[in-house]
Amino acid sequence: MQSNVKPAAEGARTNVLRIRRRIFALLGIGTVWAGGTVTSCKSTAASTEGLVSAPMLAASEEIASAATADARDAGRDGASARTMTEPRPPPGTSGCTRTVRCEDPLLAAPAWPYPHPFERCDPDPPGDAGGFSANATTEKRRDDPETCCYVSFRDCSRRGRPHVVRGRPLRDERGEPVVAPSRAAGAWAAGWSDLPLRGDGDDDADEWLDAAALEHASVAEFARLSLALLALAAPATLVERTHIAALDEIEHARTCYAEASRRLGRPVGPGPLPVSGLTASVDVRSLARDTLLDGCLGECVSAIVLRQRGLSDMAADEERHAELAWEILEFLLSVEPRAARAGIELALSELDDERSLDELSLAVIRDVVRPSAAGLVARYCT
Asked: Can you list the alpha helix ranges (DSSP code H) found in the chain?
């Protein structure tokens, strides 16, 4: 059940190309993206100048227009302010050098400002200033009341090679998957003794238990994702589909625990999921990075593996989850283009080490992820 199981080459290639057509159509980027050099991003969600013109499907238009409307409304009536989170080093890294850079505030508050007293701080400063820091700004304003400070992290080293995990895993602050231990319980494996075996006949109970634990933890990850989307004033359709994806993962976990129980000859299910200390990050850069790696890539790889194993219903769900991930990326670009682009670029840079990736993941990265990301970023950064 792991994503590094080598599928039949011809069938896998067919599925990769089929998913690529679906994603390209969803994003409206065309079969071939004739991209140039991406040099800058539009400064606010309410601005439409400088966008690369490209046809979009109705769902994508709804997401972009809703984000723009939200930003304009917030600027008019002051009832809503941009969520603030302190900048943090990229997940899965260590040894970073923290740099603080302070700038003069804007002459007037942007369309979607930070809350008072930071409403004139630029949410998308030019260059590589980093992310806005309320803590650093408050400290600096003791000496200079007219300033806004931004924090960036340089020279970070990865704590480990990137690896693709099936589905959208729940990860801790180190970037490692968090799962519940298995225990003797039948609530998540109802009817296991009467089920016919599914999937490859060579699958053993441990493979199904590993898959079940990841699917079970994905329920929590989608719940955490929904909190982040709500904090960013995401359109209702994105929040709704995120919760639907969580319900899908519940069914996937039940299927996998039932399959494991069938092979073990006794009921098995999840123990307590260790969620203490896990928070919902609303840092757009980190959210964009995680969405590309675990949603756009991980869900796509999972869908292909599942379809190769004959689990077509679960595969169809994972494909929809991958599509959702791309639409979330588009929403993030529409709200905070510079931060979202930085997260996308960080994720792609982490995939440069091909030695750590299996053949299927490399194909998905080459044929789906990189061209789709390039086309999507070009719509907001030109």
From this structure: 9-27, 58-77, 134-140, 205-231, 236-264, 284-290, 298-308, 312-335, 337-350, 359-364, 370-380
